[in-house]
Specification:
By secondary structure, this protein is α/β, with parallel strands linked by helices. Helices cover about 45% and strands about 10% of the residues. The chain folds into four domains: about 130 residues, 2-Layer Sandwich (Signal recognition particle alu RNA binding heterodimer, srp9/1); about 180 residues, P-loop containing nucleotide triphosphate hydrolases (Rossmann fold), CATH 3.40.50; about 70 residues, Helicase, Ruva Protein, domain 3; about 230 residues, Peptidase M41 (Methane Monooxygenase Hydroxylase, Chain G, domain 1), CATH 1.20.58.760. The protein contains 22 helices and 19 strands.
Length: about 650
């Protein structure tokens, strides 16, 4: 409102005064009726007859007052008040008191000019002020409405200001290669001549690609903190509206704003919201999104390209972006932001834990080894969960036990001690989880069981967690066979000991079937089917998921694929039953201890399997008996000629019924 603030304030006060003045009067007028005497003599007659209760003489020119109750009894019309013009006389009041009955109150008021002023203010000035206020208000709303109508196509981008929480590359742990790529962009904006002298051109667009939670937006904030230039940031969904053409208008306005702050960086988060492949979907594409994308393509590298405006964008779905958006001259530099490795996880843990009171027993290196596959967001959640657990237990410091439990909460969900499980089902769960744990410890060169428990957590009635000692980016055929064998250990234990199978192995069977199918159709790990891939996944991109599979093979090949998958799963199942049969005493021992203690950690499981008892903290490790011989893999001899296939890294697996 600017300079109109005092005026509007005064008008508001006048309006309130008018309302205070008029509301009682209007209310009184609605409830009372006033009689105006045409002749003074009629007033005198009513006064003498006792019809009048009070009389007030105003400035010796007018008299007003109230009628007595019942003054108009029996008449068709009655009045509550009266007013009459009286002759000007200095003795008028005394005369009225002489002729009036003794119970009539006679008063004098000399405030004629005050009454007239109030009347003028109430009937003229205040209504005019109210109209002026209404006019100014509606004019302002019309101007704002007009501005908003024209601003509807304005960009929703925000310019980073001084109140922005500054983040630099020093606050981002690891990702050295990614930071080097982005530092080059920052350096070009600071010293463009250094590059232009050599004829170098900085990329127009830098696309950050990575899984959710890996730190793409944090890197963009670090670029904003390091750049020292205008930094505009918005989401891809800020472009798209229900009206066609608004998004394109916002794109043009965004670049116009950036041109007024050259050099500048524009950060678009979740680019896939506006950059999806054009023409995809049932019945055609999304007109509004496609026009927005067209405008973005032209602004980035069209007839009049923007030289000193760099687009920084982030997405976790690069597969659905339009190819024109990824060609050289637009987003021609793609930076892969992957989940952190063990050293980067250690650095991230130190960053998030530096302002928290940690107990001396907390080992960040051990936590980094226990969190393979965790993203930066997962690690932040891990540290926060540990702090919450320590606060609930009224501790002054966060201990390692809280971090251990936080790892399980992130992987499997919160513990559900309130769930009541029958003793019979509890024993079934114990054998199921003990089967997973025992096979994990008996298979050579396989990940030992990190923890096994029969306490419900999340959606699982129990779970067995295996954590690798280090990060792995390649997975061999032998390891996949071992994974399937351990996953089938729960069902094998149920059938071997209880003679019955339950629905608890549904999730295990789903994982095993998927691994076996990938081995046969994608990884070329089947001797019968050979080193080939079968089938091609595809689907409508507008649904953001591959839903269909193109079968580029015959029915005979499909039958052989199904047979090979079944043979792989059945061989792993028979192997699991053989291991459990050979070590039945260890299985029963694990179950009894598990039913008693409900949870066993890595050292306890290993001691029960090796020595048949729980570990003694005071015992000398050298005096322990030799370890039980592990079962060799029946497919180990076949695996050596096989070349490992690339398998995307996954979170630690929690086996559960």
């Amino acid at each position: 409102m600017g300079k109109q603030n005092p005026i509007v304030f005064v008008l508001v006060l006048l309006t309130l005064g008018y309302m205070i003045y008029m509301i009682p009067r209007l209310s009184q007028q609605a409830q009372t009726t006033t009689k105006t005497y045409d002749y003074y003599s009629d007033f005198v007659d009513d006064l003498q007859s006792g019809k009048i209760k009070t009389v007030t003489v105003v400035a010796r020119q007018r008299a007003e007052g109230e009628f007595a109750p019942g003054a108009f009894a029996g008449q068709k019309r009655s009045f509550d008040r009266f007013t009459v013009n009286v002759p000007s006389s200095e003795n008028l009041t005394e005369t009225l008191r002489t002729i009036a009955p003794a119970d009539v109150k006679i008063a004098v008021s000399s405030g004629l000019w005050q009454d007239r002023l109030i009347s003028i203010a109430g009937n003229i000035i205040l209504p005019i002020g109210l109209l002026a206020f209404v006019w100014l208000f509606f004019m302002r709303q019309m101007r704002m409405g007009s501005g908003q109508a024209f601003n509807f196509g304005r960009s929703q981008a925000k310019l980073m200001g001084d109140n922005f929480d500054r983040v630099t590359f020093a606050d981002v742990a690891g990702m050295q290669e990614v930071k080097e790529e982005l530092k080059e962009v920052v350096e070009f904006l600071r010293q463009p001549e250094k590059f232009r002298v050599l004829g170098a051109k900085i990329p127009r667009g830098v696309l950050l690609v990575g899984p959710p939670g890996c730190g793409k937006t944090l890197l963009a904030r670090a670029v904003a903190g390091e750049a020292g230039v205008a930094f505009f940031y918005l989401s891809g969904s800020d472009f798209v509206e229900m009206f066609v053409g608004v998004g394109a208008s916002r794109v043009r306005d965004l670049f116009e704003q950036a041109k007024t702050h050259l050099p500048a960086i524009i950060f678009i988060d979740e680019l896939d919201a506006v950059g999806r492949l054009r023409g995809a979907g049932l019945g055609g594409g999304h007109d509004e999104r496609e026009q927005t994308l067209n405008a973005l393509l032209v602004e980035m590298d069209g007839f009049d390209p923007n030289a000193d405006v760099i687009i920084l964008a982030a997405t976790n779905r690069p597969d659905i972006l339009d190819p024109a958006l990824l060609r050289p001259g637009r987003f021609d530099r793609r930076v892969i932001v992957d989940n952190p490795d063990i050293k980067e996880r250690e650095a991230i843990l130190q960053i998030y834990a530096k302002d928290k009171p940690l107990s001396p027993d907390v080992d960040v290196k051990v936590l980094a080894r226990r969190t393979p596959g965790f993203s930066g967001a997962d690690i932040e959640n891990l540290v926060n969960e540990a702090a919450l657990l320590a606060a609930r237990r009224d501790k002054q410091r966060i201990e390692m036990v809280e971090f251990d439990e936080a790892v399980e909460r992130v992987i499997a969900g919160p513990e559900r001690r309130s769930r009541v499980v029958r003793d019979k089902e509890r024993r079934v769960i114990a054998y199921h989880e003990a089967g997973h744990a025992l096979i994990g410890n008996m298979i050579p060169d396989f990940q030992d069981t990190y923890k096994v428990t029969i306490l419900p957590r999340g959606m699982a009635l129990g779970y067995s967690i295996n954590l690798p000692d280090d990060d792995s980016y390649l997975t061999s055929r032998t390891e996949l066979i071992n994974r399937m064998t351990q996953a089938l250990g729960g069902r094998a234990a149920e059938e071997l000991v209880l003679g019955e199978i339950t629905t608890g192995a549904a999730n295990d069977l789903e994982k095993v079937s998927e691994i076996a199918r990938q081995m046969v159709t994608e990884f070329g790990m089947s001797e019968k089917m050979g080193p080939m891939t079968y089938g091609k996944k595809h689907g409508p991109i507008f649904l953001a998921r591959d839903l269909a599979e193109e079968r580029n093979y015959s029915e005979e090949v499909a039958r052989r694929i199904d047979e090979e998958i079944r043979d792989l799963v059945e061989s792993c199942y028979e192997r699991a039953k053989a291991i459990l049969s050979q070590h039945r005493d260890n299985l029963d021992r694990l179950v009894e201890v598990l039913l008693e203690r409900e949870s066993l950690d890595q050292a306890e499981v290993a001691s029960l399997v090796k020595y048949g008892r729980l570990p003694d903290p005071d015992a000398d490790p050298a005096s322990e008996p030799p370890r039980t011989e592990q079962v060799p893999s029946p497919v180990a001899a076949k695996d050596s000629p096989r070349r490992p296939s690339i398998v995307p890294p996954v979170l630690p697996e929690a086996q559960h019924p």
